[in-house]
Structure formats: structure tokens, C-alpha cells
Write a structure and sequence with these properties.
It is built from six helices and two strands, in the order H-E-E-H-H-H-H-H. It has a single domain, classed as Orthogonal Bundle (Transferase(Phosphotransferase), domain 1). By secondary structure, the protein is mainly alpha-helical. The C terminus is likely disordered.
């Protein structure tokens, strides 16, 4: 990513990094193979996504209980936010629509008595600006 120009496109890029940070449970800068050389999480996540290895970066607490279709949708939109060509990045509305879709996969799973992690619901609710109560999912699921 080139620097020097602030715009809505940069906001989308940064939001993509935040989405990967939540999904991966890692800081913005993640140690590469050489612990003395930090690697930007955006680049790291993009590389893993392009090699179909994103599941290797996903936080274990999420990976064990998230619905695969929800994880895939979440990762897809996060990846699209990191596109090198700023004009190819999704709009904020498109990001929200995809996050809602990821959430719906989780809701569907709950309605079918699947398990869901507190961590994922809590983090998704924060992304979407919703309040969350561990014993009541209503606020999270009523966008």
C-alpha cells in the first residue's frame, strides 16, 4: 500500500486490517519468521489468504466454533478491503452487507442448535457497533 493519501479508500484498507486482527487475534504487526523483523498483518493475512492458508492464522478460539461459511465470508470481505487498487476495494456499504451475511450464517447455526463462541459474537458485535450480553443474543442478531 502506498502512503501519503488519506481518503475513504484508506479507511476501508485499515478496516480490512482490523477485521483480520479480530479474526486472527494478532496485533497489527506480527513477527515474521525472523522475530527481529516485524511483518504488517495486512500483508501477512493477504499472503495466507492467497495461498488458501488463512485458517492457519485464525484465532483458535474462533476457528474451533465458527461456522465455516461465516469464517469464509468474513475472510473474503477482509481480503477485498486490502486490495492494492483502492478503487477495487469494497464500499463501506458492501463491507457491512458482507458482515451481516457472515453474521446470518452464525445465526442460522444457533437456530439449528449449533455452538457459537462468546469471543466471536462479542467481537462481531463490536465491529457492528452493537451491545452484547453473554446470555442474550438479541442485540447482536437484530440489525
Amino acid at each position: 500500500m502506498q502512503t501519503g493519501l488519506l481518503s475513504k479508500y484508506v479507511d476501508i484498507y485499515i478496516f480490512g486490517v482490523v477485521l483480520f486482527k479480530i479474526m486472527c487475534g494478532r496485533l497489527r504487526f506480527q513477527s515474521a519468521a525472523d522475530p527481529n523483523e516485524p511483518q504488517f498483518l495486512g500483508s501477512l493475512a493477504r499472503n495466507y489468504y492467497e495461498q488458501s492458508k488463512i485458517d492457519e492464522l485464525v484465532f483458535e478460539g474462533i476457528k474451533e466454533q465458527i461456522v465455516p461459511q461465516s469464517l469464509s465470508t468474513f475472510a473474503d470481505i477482509a481480503y477485498k478491503c486490502l486490495h492494492d487498487d483502492r478503487h477495487q476495494r469494497p464500499t463501506a456499504s458492501e463491507v457491512v452487507a458482507q458482515l451481516k451475511e457472515a453474521k446470518e450464517f452464525q445465526v442460522s447455526c444457533i437456530l439449528q442448535n449449533c455452538t457459537i463462541t462468546y469471543i466471536f459474537v462479542h467481537r462481531m458485535s463490536k465491529i457492528l457497533g452493537l451491545s452484547f450480553h453473554s446470555n442474550v443474543y438479541v442485540n447482536f442478531f437484530t440489525l
